[in-house]
Automatic annotation (TrEMBL):
It holds the Pfam family CDP-OH_P_transf. It comes from the Eukaryota. It catalyses: a CDP-1,2-diacyl-sn-glycerol + L-serine = a 1,2-diacyl-sn-glycero-3-phospho-L-serine + CMP + H(+). This is CDP-diacylglycerol--serine O-phosphatidyltransferase. Residues 1-20 are annotated as: Disordered. It comes from Penicillium antarcticum. Its main location: endoplasmic reticulum.
Length: 232
């Protein structure tokens, strides 16, 4: 499973990071930032492709029985995992570490595996006021998990290649399991009024869809410190 350190490779000794710092801090050249990007960074940005979120929004605007847009939203999410995996492979192949890539990777993961599943859930009908709170909690857990990784990656045990030996908490790409479940709902037309388990406390300020609690549980697993998932 890819992670937010997928662009991290042992220093190559070619001054790549120093060159990137210089280009990023340059006061001249409108496109100096583009020149600072490595090939792996460009692949990472494909992970942050927003088409899944936009497709969920498009579904909200159309006929709820026309599932084309929501199928597109769910189908785009696995591509995020592919690009998240490939950026690390490319970084290690080229033996170039990237300060920019480390930050881009976390931001892209938050979009692909945090915001996109939450947007799809909203589009499918999980959208009461309390649902919003629970989905926001899920996204914030993903944000916190990625930030913690960036802070602690330097002190986590490493293998011979320099990669961390394990994840603290479940990796954020595991939210694709929720996306897979939502895809099954769509295949069965279990959306809006037909969402599994229905609506709890309907008609009150506390109404919510019980299935949203799986987002809450997944968020808690992501920020857990006691769960150690070995890295492949």
């Amino acid at each position: 499973m890819a992670s937010s350190d997928s662009n991290s490779v042992p220093p190559s000794g070619d001054g790549g990071q120093e060159k990137q710092k210089m280009l990023l801090s340059s006061e001249q050249g409108h496109f100096s930032m583009i020149k600072a990007l490595h090939l792996a960074d460009l692949v990472t940005e494909m992970n942050g492709f927003l088409m899944s979120v936009f497709s969920s929004m498009r579904y909200c605007l159309g006929d709820p029985t026309d599932y084309g847009a929501i199928w597109a939203a769910l189908a785009f999410m696995p591509f995020g995992l592919f690009f998240d995996f490939m950026d690390g492979k490319i970084a290690r192949w080229r033996k170039k570490s990237s300060l920019m890539g480390q930050e881009l990777d976390s931001l892209a993961d938050l979009i692909s595996f945090g915001l996109a599943p939450a947007a799809a859930a909203f589009a499918l009908g999980i959208r009461t006021s309390l649902d919003h709170v629970f989905l926001t909690f899920f996204v914030l857990c993903g944000l916190t998990r990625l930030a913690r990784f960036n802070v602690t990656v330097a002190v986590l045990p490493k293998d011979k290649s320099g990669k961390s030996k394990y994840f603290e908490g479940t990796p954020i790409p595991t939210t694709l399991s929720i996306a897979s479940l939502m895809a099954y709902w769509v295949s069965q037309s279990w959306t809006h009024e037909n969402i599994p388990l229905g609506l709890f406390a309907e008609g009150t300020i506390f109404e919510f869809h019980p299935v949203v609690l799986m987002f809450v549980l997944h968020g808690c697993l992501m920020v857990s410190k006691s769960i150690h998932i070995p890295k492949p």
